[in-house]
Amino acid sequence: MSSFRDKLPLALKCAIEEVPPTEVGQSETEQPKPKRRKVTKRVVHDVRPAETLADQEKQRQTSSSTVEELEEIMHGSRPRRGAAKVALKLLHDWAKDTLVNPSNDMSSLQGSWGGHSSPIAVEQKSPKCGRARVKGIKRKHPGFEGRKSYEDEDFVLGGIGEDEEETEELESDLESAVDSIAELRRNKSIQYQGRKYGTSPNGLPNNMMQPCSESTKCNKTFREKHQSSWVFPEWIPSVNDWKTVPQSDLEEYLPQEMQSATFKISREGLSKETPLQKLNRFEAMDKHPECWDTLMFTGGPVWAMEWCPSPDGSSDNQYIALACHQGMDDQHYANEKYTGTGLIQLWDLGKLEYDSSPTSQRPYLVCGLAQDKGFIWQLKWCPAGAWEQPTCPRKLPCLPRLGLLAAATSTGIVTIYSIPHPQALLASKTPVDSEDSQVQPIFTVNGVITLKLGSFGAPHNKINRQVLSMDWSATKDHDIMALGFYDGLVGLWNLSSTSSFLRICEPDQSLALLPYRCFQAHDSCIRALVFCPAASDLLATAGDDRMVKVWDLTRPYDCITAHKRHLTTEVFWPLNAPGLFLSQENSYTRNDQHGIYYLDLGYHEIKPAFMVPRMATMWSMSFNDWLNSLVTSDTLGEVIFELLPKIDGKIQYTKGIAQRRFPVYFTDMVPYGANTSNETEGAEEMEGGGEGEGSPAVESERVDGQGGAVPLKPQTYREAVGQYYLHYRDSDIRTFKKFHERAPWKRMRSTEVNTKIDLDIMPMAALHKVRFNPNMSSHTWLVSGGQAGLVRVHCLRSMYREDTKTMFMKCKKQFAGLYHPDNRSQATEDLTENPDQH
């Protein structure tokens, strides 16, 4: 009997053997404990709420009824049979409570008897003696009056009884009951452990991954309710508007750098690293067969980059729109206007799934958009409703629309382009013969609308200011845009406006739109602004006056809140958070206060939470509403991934914030001539917090005419690529198991506080933009690029979760049913009857 009796809780053993819990394991020779001195207790009035008192009274009634029920079981039956029945009933009740609220044995029993262990296991002091008595069993019954449970051997299972068959039957019943309950508890414990406790398949604790699932559901619900399925039906691209740039004029629009800097890639966990190599302009590397990452060269420093959004459930090709300066050493002032030519590049990355390798072997520049409005500071796609399927039944000259892209240029205007699907555009065009096989199709097209400052009676062309930031409202009907200018002015445009005072026809027959409202938000240029994702009436702005302000656009004469922080470079407003994420420069701050802050807007007494500490300037960050995660890029060329906790007013009290940060990759500027051993030593020094090869403080010297040593620090891109090459060190982000014991994580922790930055060296490794993919099918992919013009694409494969797979598969089926051939034929008939409708 010891095989199954050991599995029982103490209370059940006492019920079966009729032994008081206080005497289990007590020898017969032990003396009883002396009686306690009687203490008069003071009456305390119960001041609990009425609901709590009612619950306690209900629990007492339940306990009393249970005791009476047990008494009926014990009355009129054999002592051993009665005790066994009581034990079996307690086992079943215990199993029921365990499945409802898994916990330890005693706590489960406590939950089932209204705050007591059980009607059998409650120890009470007898008013006549110091011996503990068992409630319910000690009561006298006609069948066994005057008998003491601890003196009757007939109650002890396994002893000598009158009927051995009855004993064996009871033992088998109890043993099977205990085994079945243990199996049920084990299954329930595993299921409960998968939700909250234990470790997820990627190596992180489940309680750390739990906010990701909640964020995914929240984002999915929001997109279904508050994002439009189709907007601006009059802005359909036409093949007649897209004209191919002649070969003779092509170089005027293209970036000037023909070849990239020398680089190599080493990946954690893989001994083989790529050799030193270069890429030609608009060339890309093949995807890595195991890590799936890739790299492409754009020809100039990247300052604007965005993923093209697509509907939930779509598995079509993913596109990236980016823009770079033409010269590697171009510098500009915010208070001046710059004219000239530029190029918007559209890269096709193939089909990207969140848990599978890309279908395309390498990315490629599918087409370029040439424009003559100056260089581009920022790009923004319409958040939703602008994408349609490539096989959409449109008749020429109309083309299926990929999206609406807004470009903020240095001439102080924002132009919105209607971008067609590249395959449909290229299929409708005759290939242009070219001697250079590297040249891709480059087109010119007028925007569907241009956003300008001014009024109907004012010469707006003379008062345009340089646009440094912009955002597109994320809620229906996505028709509000906000622009931030260099002098602190914020302008608001309603893209759906039909007012003749706001819509102006330009001499070249293009359409211009004037703002319906402007207000002075800051004393200096506005570096970043963002709409609240759940309400287009709320806007957050950050300026060079070190102020972060939140505005109610229905009353913009005064801000709602104003916080004086540091010099902010970018702002993100998460969907499921009452606050803002701010990325900051390393000026106006202490050495230990650089990085990413979370500024809570609902609790003014709470200080901003310091999320990602870095020593260098944080140029960019991106928030992923699917994963409740953040990714950052800085001047040192480091991309850091942060898995955030549940974002609320207590985020600054979350423990283990440092354990939630993981490096994606590092960028080192390595001087030519450094051998492999030196590189290894430098990496080890960097992990320990010293200066290694990754520190840009490495100098070379020359001897001047007077015999003195003069350091040679590269000031231009040409000098930098002549002395250094880039070494990309990737972390193994396929799993997070034992990540905090691995070298990349230790290096990240050391560079957070000990990195030395030499501002006299050309920051060739700096990363200016990093972006998470906003689409459901490929939400684990991210892209980053910067000063060297090299753009890298990575997949956070370890963030794939089984609990969201069902949701994604359901969306795919819904999307496939929406675009079934039968539905497409019906759509063709509707399009013929009403061409302005989708």
Q: Tell me the number of helical segments per DSSP (H or I, 4 or more residues long).
A: 13
Model regions low in confidence, pLDDT < 50 over at least 5 residues? 18-30, 41-52, 100-162, 188-195, 432-438, 676-700, 702-706, 821-838
Q: Summarize the main sheet.
A: 6 strands, mixed
- Summed over residues and divided by their number, the pLDDT gives a mean of 76
The amount of helix comes to 10-25%
Write a structural description.
The chain is α+β, with helices and mostly antiparallel strands and 838 residues long. The protein has a domain of 170 residues. Helix content is 22%, strand content 25%. The protein has a 6-stranded mixed sheet with strand order 3-13-9-8-7-6, with no helix packed on it. A hairpin with a 4-residue loop joins strand 30 and strand 31. The C terminus is likely disordered.
Brief overview:
The protein has 838 residues and is of the alpha+beta class. 22% of the residues lie in helices and 25% in strands.
List keywords for this structure.
globular; alpha+beta; 838 residues; 13 helices; 6-stranded mixed beta sheet; disordered C terminus
Secondary structure layout plus pairing:
Blueprint: H1 2-5, H2 10-17, H3 50-74, H4 79-100, H5 105-112, E1 123-125, E2 132-134, H6 164-195, H7 206-226, E3 243-244, E4 263-267, E5 294-297, E6 302-307, E7 319-324, E8 342-348, E9 364-371, E10 376-381, E11 401-409, E12 414-420, H8 422-428, E13 442-444, E14 449-451, E15 467-472, E16 480-485, E17 489-494, E18 503-505, E19 511-513, E20 517-520, E21 526-532, E22 535-543, E23 547-552, E24 561-564, E25 568-572, E26 579-584, E27 595-600, E28 609-613, E29 618-624, E30 629-634, E31 639-643, E32 661-671, H9 676-687, E33 700-703, E34 709-712, H10 717-723, E35 724-730, H11 743-754, E36 767-772, E37 781-786, E38 790-795, H12 805-818, H13 821-833
Parallel strand pairs: 4-35, 9-13, 14-19
Antiparallel strand pairs: 1-2, 3-13, 5-38, 6-7, 7-8, 8-9, 10-11, 11-12, 12-14, 15-16, 16-17, 17-20, 18-19, 21-22, 22-23, 23-24, 25-26, 26-27, 27-28, 29-30, 30-31, 31-32, 32-35, 33-34, 36-37, 37-38
Helix pairs in contact: 2-4, 4-5, 4-6
